[in-house]
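User: Structure tokens for both sequences below?

Assistant:
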Amino acid sequence: MNSLVIVGTQWGDEGKGKITNALSSCAEMVIRYQGGANAGHTVSVSGEPLVFHLLPSGISVPGVRCVLGPGVVIDPESLVAEIEMVRGRGIDVGANLLIDVGAHMVLPYHKTQEAAEEHARGGAAIGTTRRGIGPTCADRVARDGFAIGELARFDDFRERFVATAERKNELLTRLHGADPIDIDAETERLRALAPKLAPHLEDTPRLVRRAIADGRNVIFEGAQGTLLDISHGTYPYVTSSNTSAAGVSAGTGVPPSMIGEVMGVAKAYVTRVGEGPFPTETTGEAGALLRERGGEIGSTTGRPRRCGWLDTVALRYAVELNGIRRLIVTKLDVLDALETIPVAVAYEIGDRTVDRFPRSIEELAAASPVYEELPGWQTSTREARTEAQLPKNALAYLRRIEKLAGAEVAAASVGAAAHAVVEFAEIL
């Protein structure tokens, strides 16, 4: 393996956390390279679900060093709470968690600002998680943000934070009519959090580059999915970072020449949280079935996910954009009860039939899927662990995905447990 990128190929929630966690036993280091606490990665630890929002999904594997790279935006309070949560589950974070000094902080006014801006958009709201991610990234680009390493010099940090927060309060109250933050209370809250994070602060790009150069196995873990990429997704209904493999170098400080394989994770159907076009969305009985069988409730927002059939036009776009050779298909078992399974192979846009993913949001909104109906298998796949144990039509479904997406299906997940995976070839 040496270095492996695990990236989502849809609108997120593909099961990257489970896959990262499962592969972490073969790695020495796992690095989150983008996003913030707007992500929710669910893994199974001792048979019980554990949801990470900031911590890399390898944190539950003993001896694996887990890194939050400079491309991650960190809510200090959320991170400390998450560290304490996993410690309460018997996981020793200790020296295994490293936080890059250059990762920027989500501060209290960012959350208030995002909520106010979403409210002001009215019917044109994006459907953000309201975790303050967008305003934090905007401040970073505007050179008005705060790196988490600044907490180590708290007096200097405090002086600039107070001045910035006063300006932000003016924005919140006068433009948005929102309540101001309590600057003194928030300053003291950050003062209390600083010593809890200080032992984990590090120059992480240097350590990651050294690990790869020494031949150690390193996993780069993405959050959200390719179609939410700020540059290549369904803008403006996207997140505020490069969720595709293109974000790895910027988000970790590792040059492209040191990045090995990019492996894609795709759900056997598609879900989306938030607003924006979704060509294969299905409502009514079919959507309810997928939502119920798949447990499709957002792990960060608690919102029911929008559900739809597999879209191989979008999947092929993600495969080509990320340079994916191999896919892991998750939640195959959710389709077990279906007699037939629609798969989108093209779009109709006006009087045209196209097999490419539109870059224009207006074209995507106007797209109607052209479906190919595949036979279901109507028997449980949950006990399958080898290719021979899969129903014939389930295997045919995966082989059709390979052809349509242009990438080999290396494995399929058939349940929530870490071991509920059918491998067609050695993944690592």
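Moving on to the next sequence.
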Amino acid sequence: MRVFYFITKSEQGGAQTVIFELLKKHKERNDFVCVMAEGENWLAQKTKELGFHYKQNDYMVKTYNPLVLFHAALKYRKAIKEFSPDIVSCHSSFSGFVGRFSLLNEYPVVYTAHGWGFTDGTSRVRKIISIIGEKTAGFFCKKIICVSFFDKKNALRYHIVPKNKMVVIQNGVSIENRQTYYEKNKIVEIIFVARFALPKQQMLLLEAFKLLPHSVQEKSHITFVGDGLSKQAVLDYSIEHNLQKFVTFTHSLSRDGALDCMQKSDLFVLLSLWEGLPMSVIEAMQIGLPVVVSDVCGIAEIVDASVGTLVDNKDIDMIAKTLESFIVNVEKREKIGNSARIKGLLFNAERMSNEVFYLYDEIYKNYKHLT
């Protein structure tokens, strides 16, 4: 089978990790694969290491400039014609729009929605634009993969496409030989791995941490991994409230570097306004970390009381109390962390890949039959 993957950025991220896991399975199947994205970053390197084709599209920047979009579509269509795929797989909203509108059903397209632009927590204007765009683009793909049951329900709520055009395939990842270990009488390492930009809420973690008794703060330390526009504001807040000695900021790390940091940690936190089905949470669980995560969108499908705590972004006191309960109780961290590891392993790359390739094979058979 020949599969063409189209995604906006080649930098590290949840959607890019999904594609990487699928590429490893393609290698086992001896498929022919081409990936197109902006830049020559992590996904580009991994694609080449696996022996697949990578095409750079520097016009893939989030913009409403019609000239830029036109050039992005031209470069994409040219690559499609040259590669002649059996399946085109588009990931993320921007490449999903460009990828579907550019082909207009000339090729069978599968669009994976890593969360919707109209989901809970987004602005009213963004919701309206996204709903109109997704309804129109929905005509130009064979199937839409939703990464959570919540996302499918949300799409049905706004009548994006017919029910039979959507399938739920929850994200999966496999981390080998990584597990955290719990020690008594040590500083509790809290880690937050994400870009400093919406929908992530790094500031909220510091605001909650500020409410903790000083004796509890002294027993813990926060590491923020990532870069982005809001990073300076979070750094300034830590200084303003005398929290800097409890906080470390790193730049964006390689995936292995981020996993190394997570493996040395004791508690994983991800606070967001909205999410798809975040790979970082699954990775943290597989490593054996208890997780504290915002109760938004489909996250409740992977996180429950056995693996961590779902928190309300508006209840900062609850977030603070949750942090304190994990910081002061090593037995709780160990018990829930072990449970998180067991449940996290259910969301593995093998399961995800098998479900995706079953879908690809079915579409391929039907398309070939019709042509």
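User: Anything stand out in the second?

Assistant: Residues 349-370 form the longest helix (22 residues).
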